[in-house]
Write a structure and sequence with these properties.
- Chains A, B: Belongs to the GST superfamily. Phi family.
- Two copies of one chain form a homodimer.
- Chain A is of the alpha+beta class and about 220 residues long.
- Chain A folds into two domains: about 90 residues, 3-Layer(aba) Sandwich (Glutaredoxin), CATH 3.40.30.10; about 110 residues, Up-down Bundle (Glutathione S-transferase Yfyf (Class Pi), Chain A, domain 2).
- Chain A contains ten helices and four strands; from the N terminus they run E-H-E-H-E-E-H-H-H-H-H-H-H-H.
- The longest helix of chain A has about 30 residues.
- Chain A starts with a strand and ends in a 7-residue tail after the last helix.
């Protein structure tokens, strides 16, 4: 039975798709329309009580939270496709560290920019210029630290592409696209080279291809 | 060489201490005074560029982000002390899922309550009643989902204590103590039993004992 990915039009589920492509795992997608409130249907809430995406089903095993799903597939198919975890416990520690930095430092201000500049006025979000300004300032500081880090190693956790890099793809793609702030990436030499590298991976291009029939704003 | 934990007076470093006690790993603590701005010293920023706590040094290996550190020690000492990861890949997936729920759903509103009710007016935080009200409502919804989950299994990821439960200890301890909202836990039967269980573990009592000489507000 192939893996089912509930999403897939939105950014967080794309983390899972790109991981599955890297790991050469077959999957099918189940579209859940957030604007139509399908994530609040009782059947969906049985899978994911918080009403968030993505969720996966692997046989009769159900899992949610995108970064937990990434770790699950990277571990389950450790010796298939791209190694995304790191080879030593120390490397794995750094992958987890930068994956946490993505979740705790990079994502919150970027998510605010996405909500207020891309999704407003959908989902009842009222555009707030103060939030936009503060979020851009916070994200800029994070990107300055990334610039320093990426001047010392090709990828965030070292000289290998990992879950830590992969997890940045969907929301950064919004940042340089519909959010209209590509300069935040392009003006930083090493961040820009890193972005060009990871966003041109065949796995990411394939993910975009799979999702192009869905419009997250429709 | 014993493990060094930079912190340790604050909540996030206590996650690391309780993990090290559970894993029977020897450590020493290095106090970093946030109110005195020691986390912005150039030497500290070399260890942790974001100026956050905790950081650990294990020989010449440095790691930051509390949940990444938990995973590192739980994996490195897999067969020593309490197993905190789960025995199968499926159980590990659920541990990671609930650890992400703690980070993404439980922690943000709880952290707001801690900042506005416990740390205001320290760190220049201005108490905001609207933030307090909204955060309590959000946390209550999360705790309702926990109540349902903990009516079905003794711990969050299943019938075993894991990193997912452990990660809740320091901030929930603030919630039932100085934040003054113990009723949010006590009024929910299964959450209350779970809290009594995990907060009476010798590892947590030892962590509190180690930290009692430090006052995070001084």
């Amino acid at each position: 039975m192939v893996v089912k990915v509930y999403g897939p039009a939105y950014a967080s589920p794309k983390r899972v798709l790109v991981c599955l492509v890297e790991k050469e795992v077959e999957f099918e997608t189940v579209h859940v329309n957030l604007l139509a409130g399908e994530n609040q249907n009782p059947d969906f809430l049985k899978l994911q009580p918080f009403g968030s995406l993505p969720v996966i089903q692997d046989g009769d095993y159900t899992l949610f939270e995108s970064r937990a799903i990434l770790r699950y597939f990277a571990e389950k198919y450790k010796y298939q496709g791209t190694d995304l975890l790191g080879k030593t416990i120390e490397d794995q520690g750094l992958v987890n560290q930068w994956l946490e930095v993505e979740a705790q430092n990079y994502h919150p201000p970027l998510n605010n920019l996405v909500l207020h500049l891309m999704f407003s006025p959908n989902f009842g979000i009222v555009r707030d210029e103060k939030v936009i300004k503060e979020s851009e300032e916070k994200l800029a500081k994070v990107l300055d630290i990334y610039e320093d880090r990426l001047s010392k190693s090709k990828y965030l956790a070292g000289d290998f592409f990992s879950l830590a890099d992969l997890s940045h793809l969907p929301f950064t793609s919004y940042l340089v696209g519909p959010v209209g702030k590509a300069y935040m990436i392009k003006d930083r030499k090493h961040v820009s080279a890193w972005w060009d590298d990871i966003s041109s991976r065949p796995s990411w291009l394939k993910t975009l291809e799979i999702c192009k029939k869905y419009n997250p704003l429709a």
